[in-house]
């Protein structure tokens, strides 16, 4: 692990677990930029960050569908809330269809966060959690709640038809909802979740398909599509470039 680059993530309490996957912080203490590779993971990230070269700013990142190399500026401190898709409609209250593979800057006073807030991780978590609880809707469409519960539980392996039957929501309605809110189809999103589930196996050195892949070649092809490298190289994770994999290894 790079001693100049550190991170810490926690899971949310049950009350907001349908909307939030985790909250975390990371910092690059080095005088050099930190190279990382962002890979699709099915989450929508809200970043509060600052560095020596950038003032405090807030960024909302949409879903990723391919790997992208990025650099974390020297002396960067960031706090991040990683949302599940249900939060797009009910917590963020905006579509992110136009944010596929990109992000947008939000107002610097979004959620009334300030630069000093992110210096204390525990206090920052409490503030973010309380804000999310304040935004919780009085009622959630149970079809949507059930849909995402099944998609996550099956690790993206349940077909659109089966999901439709179990939620009482037509396949057309489901795909229309996904396209409108997230910018991609349910099938495309499920494929990302299957890849992410495979990451947990790769993090443990298990470099063969354990989910519903046709064969080893199909597995390798999909890992390359979403990470840019073969499973063996991904597992080695040179210089901790794949932060998500490092987090999974640390579990």
What features would you describe in this structure?
The chain is of the alpha+beta class and 251 residues long. The chain has two domains: 5-135, Immunoglobulin-like (Sandwich), CATH 2.60.40; 142-250, Homeodomain-like (Arc Repressor Mutant, subunit A). It is built from nine helices and eight strands. Strands 1-2-7-4-5-8 form a six-stranded antiparallel beta sheet. A two-stranded antiparallel sheet has the order 3-6. A hairpin with a 6-residue loop joins strand 4 and strand 5. The chain is globular. The protein starts with a strand and ends with a helix. The model has no long low-confidence stretch (mean pLDDT 93).
Summarize the structure.
GO terms for molecular function: DNA-binding transcription factor activity; sequence-specific DNA binding. The protein has 251 residues and is of the alpha+beta class. 37% of the residues lie in helices and 19% in strands.
Salient structural properties:
single chain, 251 residues, alpha+beta, Immunoglobulin-like, Arc Repressor Mutant, subunit A, six-stranded antiparallel beta sheet, two-stranded antiparallel ribbon, 9 helices
Give the percentage of residues in beta strands.
Answer: 15-25%
CATH class of the largest domain: Mainly Beta
CATH architecture classification name of the largest domain: Sandwich
By DSSP (H or I, 4+ residues per run), the number of helices equals: 9
Q: Give the low-pLDDT segments.
A: none
Overall average pLDDT: 93
What is the number of E strands? 8
The chain-level structural class is: alpha+beta
Rounded radius of gyration (Å): 18 Å
Described by the principal axes of the CA atoms, the overall outline is globular
Terminus-to-terminus distance: 14 Å
Percent range for helical residues? Answer: 25-40%
At CATH level 3, the topology of the largest domain is Immunoglobulin-like
Characterize the biggest β-sheet: 6 strands, antiparallel
Order of helices and strands: EEEEEEEHEHHHHHHHH
Q: What is the spatial order of strands in the main beta sheet? A: 1-2-7-4-5-8
**Total number of distinct structural domains:** 2
Organism: Chryseobacterium viscerum
Pfam families: DUF6597
GO molecular function: DNA-binding transcription factor activity; sequence-specific DNA binding
Domain HTH araC/xylS-type: 142-237
């Amino acid at each position: 692990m790079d001693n100049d680059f550190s991170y810490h993530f926690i899971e949310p309490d049950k009350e907001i677990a349908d909307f939030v996957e985790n909250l975390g912080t990371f910092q690059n203490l080095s005088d050099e930029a930190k190279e990382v590779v962002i890979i699709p993971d099915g989450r929508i990230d809200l970043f509060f960050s600052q560095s020596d070269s950038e003032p405090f700013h807030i960024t909302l990142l949409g879903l990723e569908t391919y790997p992208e190399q990025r650099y974390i500026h020297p002396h960067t401190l960031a706090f991040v809330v990683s949302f599940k898709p249900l939060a797009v409609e009910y917590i963020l209250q905006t579509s992110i269809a136009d944010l596929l593979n990109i992000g947008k800057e939000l107002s610097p006073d979004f959620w009334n966060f300030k630069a000093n807030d992110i210096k204390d991780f525990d206090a920052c978590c409490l503030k973010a959690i309380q804000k999310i609880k304040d935004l919780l809707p009085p009622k959630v469409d149970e079809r949507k709640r059930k849909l995402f519960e099944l998609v996550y539980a099956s690790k993206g392996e349940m077909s659109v038809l089966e999901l439709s039957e179990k939620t009482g929501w037509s396949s057309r309605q489901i795909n229309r909802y996904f396209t409108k809110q997230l910018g991609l189809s349910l099938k495309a999103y499920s494929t990302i979740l299957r890849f992410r589930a495979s990451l947990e196996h790769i993090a443990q050195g298990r470099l063969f398909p354990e989910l519903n892949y046709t064969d080893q070649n199909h597995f390798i092809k999909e890992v390359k599509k979403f990470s840019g490298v073969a499973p063996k190289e991904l597992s080695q994770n040179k210089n901790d470039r794949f932060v998500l994999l490092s987090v999974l290894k640390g579990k």
